[in-house]
Amino acid sequence: MESKNQINQLRPYQREIALAILSSIYGQSGLTFSVEIARQGGKNELSAQLELVLLTLNIAQPKNLIKCSPTFKPQTLISMMRLKDRLNDAGFNGIWESELGYIVRLGSARSIFLSADESANVVGNTAHFLLEIDESQDVGKEKYTKEFKPMGATTNVTTVHYGTTWDDTTLLEEVKQTNLELERRDGVKRHFRYDWEEVAKHNPDYLSYVEAERARLGENHPLFMTQYRLLPIHGGGRFLSAQQRAQMQGSHPRIRRGEGGKVYIAGIDIAGEGELEDGLFTLNPGRDATVVTVAELDFADWDHILKEPRTKVVEHYSWVGRKHAALYAQLVDILKNVWHCRKIVVDATGVGEPVASFLRHSLGSRVVSFTFTQSSKSELGFNLLAAINSGRLKVYQGDGSDEYQQFYLEMEKARSQYRPNQTVNFFVDPSDGHDDFLMSLALVVEAARSYIPKTARGV
User: Fold this and answer.
1) Domain membership flag for residue 221
2) Within its chain, how far is the Cα of 457 from the centroid?
3) pLDDT digits over 117-149, tens only?
């Protein structure tokens, strides 16, 4: 039987899930399953093969399966493309048809692909034999409860929530906990969990890939914990642990100007403008500061696993209450003549935009403007954690300076807040001070990332 052959092609853990789902569908049990498979572990392939089997078995019946994803583009479109590819592989090329841009029909059976975005209008569809919720951790609970779950009410539809864990407030986690409780009561398996180590047992290439990701991100990086280890994070807390702060401490000295033959980069966090009160270079915990972090890219200490140099912070500059216009000439001189910086990433959000524009005009393409948004800041935070966890980021030895003390005060006070859609906010609470050194550090890591591809080819 062709459908049986399709299921047999799956890996053992995928096959276990598929058989449980098909048993619920054809036993008319109407179960709800939760499926956690490590990232790139074959979740989407499992879903497409299930859809292929169900369309084939129901080819003469005017019935639907429905799959939703957090976004239509690209997630829903990718799911549609994968199903079409599997239909072609199975010999249905020229037989299946596409309808309305979101439906794939084989004979009379349809697979309907919908967006779970809050603004999407999806009411009125009926799921007859399967309802799939892809990346369930990113789907709103209210959207699912009010608009998607009722699609299977009249048909006692079998429902599957796919995804990777995030925190304990997501739809996927809620379904998972309900399923685990039901399993304890009746012994029927509803929750399936396969972390990266389980997937790697069946795919040596995957093992190599994830081990490289672990080296790049660190075992306890939020993304590695959730996407590969499938361990949930809990809301927030300290952004950096004592271990991570200690790991940043390097053995190299602070220096005051660049040395010939070395590559320097910079990250600049721009403060709001204010009146001068305490002197140009005096740090004031109650005032925003413009901070420049200068780092050396150390190719002599090349990381052969990650194919990246170390980033060694060698200097800090800080100005409190200094008008931006008064800083322009000094910034250009420091970046161009003192350090000969090859890459400079500047906070261009709000009042920082004119400064970034001036520096780019003066220093050219080596200057990169960075605008803080929820998404870009989240990526910045994850990249900073990866650099620290992997040992690629080191800060000069303690010198007792105000800058050094303020830097580590901010590292200690920094907090994280994990949000939906696998994003993080990192900051220092205003009651604890400012985060100028923290953001400047994150921007210098971004500068390293911007420069590395060009340098790596030379190495």
Assistant:
1) no
2) 27
3) 999 999 889 999 999 999 999 999 999 999 999
Provide mean pLDDT across the span 374-384: 96
Cβ proximity of 164 and 38 under 8 Å? yes
In terms of Cβ atoms closer than 10 Å to its own Cβ (0-12, 13-18, 19+), residue 243 is exposed
Residue 370: CB partners within 8 Å, gap ≥ 6? 345, 346, 347, 348, 349, 376, 380, 443, 446
Quote the percentage of the chain above a pLDDT of 70.
92
Name which of 337, 339, 357, 338 is nearest 347 in CA terms: 357
Q: Is the pLDDT of residue 454 over 80?
A: no
Handedness of CA 398, 403, 409, 412 (dihedral sign): negative
For residue 449, the domain's CATH number is 3.30.420.240
Same domain membership, residue 269 and residue 196: no
Q: Is residue 226 part of a domain?
A: no
Other C-beta atoms within 10 Å of 369: how many? 17
Task: Write the CATH number for 137.
Answer: 3.40.50.300
Q: Which of 181, 204, 227 is the last residue of a domain?
A: 204
Backbone angles phi, psi at 234, to 5 degrees: -125, 85
Which amino acid would we find at residue 156? Answer: N
Say if 19 falls within a structural domain.
Answer: yes
**Are the beta carbons of 459 and 263 closer than 8 angstroms?**
no
Q: Which range of residues forms the domain containing residue 343?
A: 237-458
Flag whether pLDDT at 300 surpasses 90.
no
Q: Tell me, yes or no, whether 324 and 397 share the same domain.
A: yes
Count of domains forming the chain: 2
C-alpha distances (whole Å) from 365 to each of 188, 293, 331, 357 are 61, 19, 16, 11
